[in-house]
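Record type: monomer structure entry
Structure origin: computed from sequence
Chain ID: A
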Amino acid sequence: MTVTALNSWTDTDLQAIREQLGRILKSGPFAQSRRRKRFLEYIVSETLAGRSERLKGYTIAVEAFNRPETFDPSVDPFVRIEAARLRDRLREYYAVEGQDDAIRIDLPKGSYVPLIKFRGTTPHESASAKATVSNTEANDTPLCSISARPSIAVLPFINMSARRADDYLSDAITENIITALSRFREFAVVASYSVFSYKGTGVRIPEIARDLGVRFILEGSVQKSKERVRVTAQLIDGSTGVHLWAERFDRAYVDLLAVLDEVTEQIVGRLGSPYTGRLGRAWRGQADSGTPRRLQAYDHLLAGLDVFDDYVPGCMAKARECLFRAIDLDPSFGKAYAKIAFSYILDVWFGWTDNESQSLAEAHKYATLAVSRDDDESWGHWAIGAYNILVGQHDRAIASYRRAMDPQSERPRSYG
């Protein structure tokens, strides 16, 4: 892929870039996003016109979004939030519809000047342009099929503020939650451009759930005043309309971006934690005798983690009983192998084993199996890193931890 300087673009190049811009603006990720369309169209047009040096937060806010001349980008994060969302939409587009395009348009982090690259097209097996699941890693190596794991759609949060202009807040937190939930490989999460088509339509929850093929719906609202931001969220069973969980978050309006990040983390933690997460608990409650074997394995994993978290002598042996049942049902279940490895590591760490060398050997065995079963499952790499710390192989531990924190892996959080 090559980046061509502006002054070396030919008329043919410029026309090709404009045609590429048109394709992007008509694509699924942008179809329901008027502000993202306007943002991308403005920064690309200014760049092609040789005015990229003007692409600053203030200029974009005033000229592209008709903000008043009193707009202060150091106080109001509107343009930064919209830029982050534009980057997400471009990633969605090039992950599916635009994966074979000859021209790539990106918005580098920390800049409002688009990066335009020309590349030779390489034939791929085309992915469906109608794909609705944003968790692409989960689709490549799923724990189980979409119908056999928790599936959720996060509907656009409603702007309850007095100003219509505050829509960007409710849209931002919606997309933040979708992005964060998509990192859990156990869940099937509907992509943002699919759910935003329901914004303001008044369609009933059960109908939306049927249309999108999901079991659960998350909806909510955002209300901003001069001094505070209030966010409400509620999880609903899409098949029955029953409310499974609801919570309200009140925060002082100091740093809006920090507030959005904190509330997103809180909501996703409530939903996604394998220990107490509302999604997992609701899903386990509806399992029956016809549940696929992999879902049964997942159920054993959660049961094992419940015991694992006791942190008392003997708890790891009890947790392993559940975890071994999980891998018996699903021999490819990388996370279960990793948690078995961790149970032996913690036995050594806390002095709960009578045979330290044997426990370390078992930890290494199951950590290695975790990675061999699923190299993208980061818990396996965390386990290998922890083992190497205990045996004094610090360089190897660092390498394993770096691999575990690779953004292409499922990165564990403090709540999962």
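Annotation 1: The chain has three domains: 2-118, 136-283, 287-404.
Annotation 2: The two ends are 38 Å apart (CA to CA).
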